[in-house]
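Lab notebook, design round three. We kept the backbone fixed and only want residue identities now. Task for the bench partner: fill in a sequence for the structure below.
Input structure tokens:
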């Protein structure tokens, strides 16, 4: 295993983005891919030969993840550093996935995600890409495409089977991690597209439960806040292109700081002494 990153995602007979988008530049990828097949029959087994791991578990996303990491490959919890749990209707290319892993490692995030493109189907506006922003520190990361650190995953894994729909378990993750204000990060530098309407996928026809009720019950069970979609802070882009006024302010402040430092380092008395020394030596 050369990489310490892995993408683990549900997959069915109609899934195609893993091949057309995630593996678009497979020769450059810095991650393994594991697909968890949820349909009863596999129509085209050859389609999945390019991924490192494939398991036919026939379940819902977070139930299959629990089965995989608890019973099938529990050793992965010590072998990989970062785990990206993509839905199969998320479009994001190879290099963007690489970037998200790299940024998550650099910032030591507990859970992170890419921002959503303007043309994405979206439940929570906080996850849309923000102009001039590099990243934002938030209170909660959505279930559809979270990237976990190993440590955060070990803490949050028991909540994955909290309900059938998975609605609300992202609220539980924040509680289980102690509501950190600097470890749940949306990276606006990385962009993904959610290609299907929220609530319109095959999952919602199969679960046979009210996801809103699921949500209420799981947050009650774990004594979590139902919604913690708030921004605690952000790192802003500062350049002539992204924020001209702020860029000019920073440039002026930098110039003044250099002048002030030069004055402190070489004040009037130092100039007199230096001039006197030159005269004596001359």
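Proposed sequence:
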């Amino acid at each position: 295993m050369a990489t310490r990153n892995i993408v683990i995602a549900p997959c069915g007979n109609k899934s195609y983005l893993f091949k057309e988008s995630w593996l678009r530049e497979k020769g450059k990828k810095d991650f393994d891919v594991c697909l968890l097949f949820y349909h009863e029959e596999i129509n085209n087994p050859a389609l999945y030969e390019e991924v490192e791991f494939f398991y036919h578990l026939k379940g819902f996303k977070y139930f299959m993840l629990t089965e995989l990491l608890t019973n099938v490959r529990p050793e992965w919890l010590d072998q990989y550093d970062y785990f990206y749990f993509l839905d199969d209707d998320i479009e994001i290319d190879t290099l963007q996935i690489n970037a998200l892993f790299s940024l998550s490692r650099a910032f030591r995030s507990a859970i992170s995600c890419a921002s959503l493109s303007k043309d994405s189907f979206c439940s929570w506006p906080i996850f849309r890409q923000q102009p001039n922003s590099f990243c934002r520190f938030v209170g909660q990361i959505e279930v559809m495409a979270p990237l976990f650190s190993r440590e955060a995953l070990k803490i949050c894994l028991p909540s994955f089977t909290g309900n059938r729909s998975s609605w609300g378990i992202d609220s539980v993750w924040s509680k289980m991690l102690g509501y950190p204000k600097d470890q749940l990060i949306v990276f606006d530098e990385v962009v993904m597209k959610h290609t299907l309407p929220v609530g319109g996928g095959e999952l919602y026809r199969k679960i046979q439960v009210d996801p809103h009720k699921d949500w209420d019950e799981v947050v009650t069970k774990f004594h979590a806040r139902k919604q913690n979609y708030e921004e605690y802070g952000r790192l802003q882009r500062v350049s002539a292109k992204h924020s001209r006024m702020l860029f000019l302010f920073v440039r002026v402040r930098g110039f003044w700081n250099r002048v002030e430092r030069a004055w402190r380092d070489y004040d009037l008395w130092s100039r007199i002494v230096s001039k006197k020394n030159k005269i004596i030596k001359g």
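Keep this in mind before ordering anything: The two ends are 71 Å apart (CA to CA).
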